[in-house]
From TrEMBL:
Cellular component GO terms held in the UniProt record: cytoplasm
EC category name: oxidoreductase
Protein name as it appears in the record: Homogentisate 1,2-dioxygenase
Residue ranges of every copy of the Homogentisate 1,2-dioxygenase N-terminal domain listed in the record: 8-282
Length: 437
């Protein structure tokens, strides 16, 4: 299905109203004595009941069966997925970089759940703090299998191949260049639409956010418009599945996978209204702000979404995009400068080339620069950018992104021992010469 076959409502933090069958939503109250059409009414809370209105999120769903109807969950194998605490290894101060996660072979079917590979993370999902970084590479749709993350919300950043996220609140199609968020506790299955090759395959990145839900950053003196605009966030319309055969629901809870066999699809919501919703966003709509004189602002100017902490301005995790843009700074070293940062930075690349790295950082790959790791442009980039004529320049066809966290991001043992980790990453900077006269 192409994206124009899906239906969306636009806005961020809105109260949406949608029904797949006319008359399924009760009028005037949330929980009437008998809900319309023989449906069950159920509230899904994304925040504590008593949190302030500005952040309070909840959705009322009207479903064929209440979600309480299911047998016990049992532990299943985590495979390459892991959760907090990320304490398998001693924290390592080195700069780290990886090639892309290999795609599964055609004769090795992997759905989205089995295709997840945890790179690292921080915090504690049990106290709703911190984040994890997962990669995925999959070649099978989830057919009679569903996923729910009780630990965190999931931010999907596809790099290769589209995803159709069939969620309890309706379907979303997410193509590379777009991102999507499925809130904590919302069940979904991932369909991989067939590529032109006739073979479905998908790869990308997932940020699992254990902290406060992603929201839009404040704009301060930027004003009422710019960066990611509210109207460009799209949420699905209600849609439901009626399945009467056995399906598996996989629940990530406390860092581990649990599964239960349901006798019906958990995607049986016929109508809903509320503000706790999955959404997607096309990074092409990001209004990029940068210098029109000299120097460039800190990369926080590229923040799309932020998970705030209790300290103002200190993010549990930020999602930042380095989108196509013009570089016009006069007497300015235009690529990202050398720096050391108290925050920890994981960078990925969806398309093209990143302006601080001439080579080695490829789409699907990623780098991790933890607390105070010294980083910046490689030697080739430094030489080029120091000598170039400073005419207006368009950075085109590129999309890099960053998950930036206040806590050190601790890699998993499998990420450190992965054959696709670049052992020679430090060499990127070895060619930098003394120019002091
Ligand atoms: Fe950085």
């Amino acid at each position: 299905m192409a994206d124009d076959e899906f239906h969306y409502s636009s806005g961020f933090g809105n109260e949406f109203v949608t029904e797949a069958v006319a008359g399924a939503l009760p009028a005037g109250r949330n929980s009437p004595q008998r809900a319309p059409l023989g449906l069950y009414a159920e509230q899904l809370s994304g925040t504590a009941f008593t949190q302030p209105r500005a952040v309070n999120r909840r959705t009322w769903v009207y479903r064929i069966l209440p979600s309480a109807k299911h047998p016990s969950f049992r532990r299943i194998e985590n495979k390459q997925l892991s959760g907090t605490p990320f304490d398998e290894l001693e924290p390592d101060p080195n700069r780290l970089r990886w090639d892309p996660l290999p795609l599964p072979a055609e004769n090795n079917p992997k759905d989205f759940i089995d295709g997840l590979f945890t790179l690292g993370g921080n915090g504690d999902s049990k106290t709703r703090d911190g984040m994890a970084i997962h990669l995925y590479a999959a070649n099978q749709s989830m057919v009679d299998r569903y996923f729910v993350d009780s630990d965190g919300e999931l931010l999907f950043v596809p790099e290769f191949g589209a995803l159709i996220l069939h969620t309890e609140l309706g379907p979303l199609r997410v193509d590379p260049g777009e991102v999507a968020v499925v809130p904590r506790g919302i069940r979904f299955r991932v369909e991989l639409p067939e590529a032109d090759s006739g073979y479905a395959v998908a790869r990308g990145y997932v940020c699992e956010n254990f902290g406060a839900a992603f929201t839009l950053p404040e704009r301060g003196p930027i004003g009422a418009n710019g960066l990611a605009n509210e109207r460009d966030f799209l949420s699905p319309h209600a849609a439901f599945e009626e399945r009467n055969h056995q399906v598996q629901v996989v629940n990530k809870f406390g860092g581990n996978l649990w599964a239960a066999d349901y006798d019906h699809s958990p995607l049986d919501v016929v109508a809903w209204h509320g503000s706790y919703v999955p959404y997607k966003y096309d990074s092409a709509n990001f209004m990029v702000i940068g210098t029109i004189s000299f120097d460039h602002p800190d990369p926080s100017i590229f923040t799309v979404l932020t998970s705030p902490s209790d300290s103002q301005g200190l993010a549990n995790v930020d999602f930042v995009v380095f989108a196509p843009r013009w570089l016009v700074g006069e007497d300015t070293f235009r690529p990202p400068w050398f720096h050391r940062n108290i925050m920890s930075e994981y960078m990925g690349l969806v398309a093209g080339q990143y302006d601080a790295k001439a080579e080695g950082f490829v789409p699907g790959g990623g780098s991790l620069h933890n607390t105070y790791a010294s980083h910046g442009p490689d030697a080739d980039t430094y030489a080029r950018a120091s000598a170039q004529e400073l005419t207006p320049q368009k950075l085109d066809g590129t999309l890099a992104f960053m998950f930036e966290s206040r806590w050190t991001i601790l890699p998993t043992a499998q990420a450190m021992s992965a054959p696709f980790r670049q052992r020679d990453y430090d060499d990127v900077w070895s060619g930098l010469q003394r120019n002091f006269r």
